[in-house]
Structure formats: structure tokens, C-alpha cells
Amino acid sequence: MEVTLQVKVVEPSRELTIAGYYDTIVCGGGPAGFAAAVAAGRNGAKTLLIELAGCLGGIWTSGNLSIILDGNGKEGVFKELLDRLKAEGGYLHTNYKEEFTHDAEVMKIVLEQMCAEAGVDIHLHTRIVDAVVENGAIQAVITESHSGRHAFTAHSFIDATGNGDLAFRAGCSFETGHPKTGQTQPASMLAILYGAPQSQENTSIPEKHQELRSFLQSADVNPSYQSPCIFKLPNPNFSFFMMNHEYAVRCDSTEDISKATLNGRKELFESVKKLKKVPGWENVHLVSTSSHIGIREGRRIKGLYRLVAEDLITGRTFPDGICEVSFQVDVHSLSRDAEIGYFDGGIEPKPYQIPYRSLVSGEISNLGMAGRCVSGDFWAHASYRVTGNSVPMGEAIGYAAAHAFQNNCSLHEVDGTAVSAYMRERGYL
């Protein structure tokens, strides 16, 4: 058979039967999406949670990020999650601030249990590929899975994909990267180790990052992340290892992400081989690497309000505030030539609030966002993006979506002060 080379291929149009009708559809089952789905389901909305991977948890599980930052003082679904992790032996307090590590396998099952108890339908191994938009609202999302191509409709939709994939498919405006250069924060391939010496298991304190870097360099390991760290995990002899940076990786480039994934995994594998030759490290093993490389920065979707650096500097509060953020501006180095692994741009934030309006698309009336794709500038994003803030964002927009259905209104029409009052009652403010 002869195949003719062509510049373009015309994909045949097709008519899709609606595969499901929901009150709320959440796209992305990571920290933000799980919380959004649980909140929507608990508040009476028939909810579908769509996830690309084979488990819930996103960066916590598929990404191997075993530490949760900026969770101190947060209640609601977040505290429920911590309590369940503790009960199952999947929680360990660290020696740095109020942060803790978790066991990814325990995390997976706990998230699944909480969603099931809230009546949430879960579709794993499913990708969002398009959105049908009419009159400024999403009418349906189009998915691809092992079952084929399907359409699902809902009253409200929530983008918790991290990279703003649903919002992008719906035609929303967005920003990416540094305001002057467009360069994004680096991605990271993360690892779980077995058998690292106990003396190295708690280098989470920033002052010890350079000590670990010097040690690695003495073992002929030159980490691409200039501030490497090792955190002890709940199970004895297991630890979380971060030493990789992959630079100039765009979330919308399969080529970038594939190259970064291959490079990062190779760096970790070769580094552990060298470490095994160091006295005291003979028994170290590379247990796992991220199945989905950790992307720090993707699309920041245009919302009803854009959180900016000045809001952080002044410690701004809002009538529709949904949680308090206490994390520093954490921009990971944009070049391997940098002397340190992260910087703050000279911005010293006071505790500040994320407003409900930053969780709602400014252009699509029934689209909410949660996690790192919410509306903010480069510097604000570098603070609120950590997962201890993703959970309350998800809980807030999930509640708002259920409220919108029950009151037959759009997310634009939901009273943000009512969402704030709910979040205060839940212990986030």
C-alpha cells in the first residue's frame, strides 16, 4: 500500500451522544480537584471527577511530591485528609515548620475513599480534549479514553488540571512565565529512595541544602537543582529526594515534557549509581521516579480578579477571601548556572488571602479554577501555587459550584462573600 505524504489531514466531523449529565464536572484529580469534587458532592451536586492518570493525587502521587507546604492552620477537607493519613500510618511530621511528608500509596486510597463517600463518580485514564462553548458558557467537555470519545455536560465545570487545559480548550485568555521573558519555572523529576543514611534524611531545613549539595558534588554528582533536599518518609528507611531541575519546559509542549522526563529520570538513575559507591550509601536504592514530571508553572487563567505581588506585600484581605496564604514567594532558579535553587524577587509577603473571584474565569460564566492555574501574576503564583493552598481553593470552588446548581445561577453570580463565610466556618480563615 502506498501512503501519500500530505501537509494536512482533515479529521471527519462526528456527532457525539452525551455520555453523562452532571451538576458539576471537575477536570483533574490532584490536590485541588479532589477537594473540589468532595466539596461539590457533599453539598448535594451530582459530580464527575475526570483524571488523566491511573490514580488520584496528581503531584502528590503520580508526581512523587511527598511533602505538603503551607498546610499549617488549615482545617476543612485538608485536616480531614491529614487525620486519615495519620490513622493509616501515612503521615510523618518534619523537622521544618509545620510541614509533613506522606506515603503516596496511602494517599491514593484515602483520596479515593473520601471521593466515594461524597458520592463522586471517578473516571481515570481519561483526557480532556475539547470543550463546547456557547453564549459564554461551557455546554460540554469532550474526553478521550479507552472507551473512545465522549461528551459530558454539567451546570458548572472546574479546571483543576494544573495547566489550565480545560480553560484553554474553552478559549480563555491566559498568561505564562515571567512577565518580561516569558520563561517558566523549571520542572522537576522527583524520586523515592530506600536506604539513604539516616543522617541525610532530614535536610529539609534550608541551611542544610548547601551541605547536601557539597556532599553530592564530592560523590561526583552535580545536581541540576542547586538546593537539593532529602525528606524522611513515614515508612522506615524510605525518603523523598529532590535534586532535579529541567529548564524552559512549557506545559503545552509534548516535546519539552518528554525530553524533561527522560533527562530527569536519567539524572536520578545515574546519581544513585554513583551514591552507592560512597561509604554508608551502599544500600541506597532508587524505588521510584515521577510517572508525571512535576510542572511548577503552566497557564494562569484570566479570572474575575488577578492576584498580584502588591496584594502579597500588603497582606491584603478580601470580602470574598477563601483562605490565608503564608508561604513565601518561591521562584525556582530559571537557569542551571544560578548559584542557589530559588529566589523571591525581593518580595516579602505578609499573610494574605486568595479571593473567590480569582477562582472564577473572567470570560466563561460557568467555569471555575483551582490550584496553580487560578488568576494571578508570576510573583503571586510563586507563593500560592503550593499544595497546602490547592486544597482550600478546591473546597471553595466545589462548594460554589454546588451552590450555583441549587440556585440555578452561574459561578459569576455566586455571592463570593457567602463562599467566604462558608470557608470561615470550615476553618480556613
So what's the overall shape?
Answer: globular
At CATH level 2, the architecture of the largest domain is 3-Layer(bba) Sandwich
Largest sheet: 7 strands, mixed
Instruction: Tell me the structural class.
Output: alpha+beta
The number of domains is 2
The CATH superfamily of the largest domain appears as FAD/NAD(P)-binding domain
What is the percent of helical residues? 25-40%
Top-tier CATH class of the largest domain: Alpha Beta
Individual helix count: 10
N-to-C SSE string, H for helix and E for strand: EHEEHEEHEEEEHEEHEEHEEHEEEEEHHH
Rg of Cα set: 21 Å
Number of E-state strands? 20
Overall mean pLDDT score? 94
The low-confidence parts are none
Distance between the termini: 67 Å
Q: Per DSSP, what share of the residues sits in E-state strands of 2 or more residues?
A: 15-25%
CATH topology term of the largest domain:
FAD/NAD(P)-binding domain
For this entry, give a set of tags.
429 residues; alpha+beta; FAD/NAD(P)-binding domain; seven-stranded mixed beta sheet; four-stranded antiparallel beta sheet; 27% helix; globular
Description:
The mean pLDDT is 94. This protein folds into two domains: 19-178 and 297-425, FAD/NAD(P)-binding domain; 191-289. It is globular and about 65 Å long. The chain has ten helices and 20 strands. Strands 1, 2, 6, 7, 8, 9 and 20 form a seven-stranded mixed β-sheet that branches. The chain has a four-stranded antiparallel β-sheet with strand order 12-13-11-14. A three-stranded antiparallel β-sheet has the order 3-5-4. Helix content is 27%, strand content 21%.
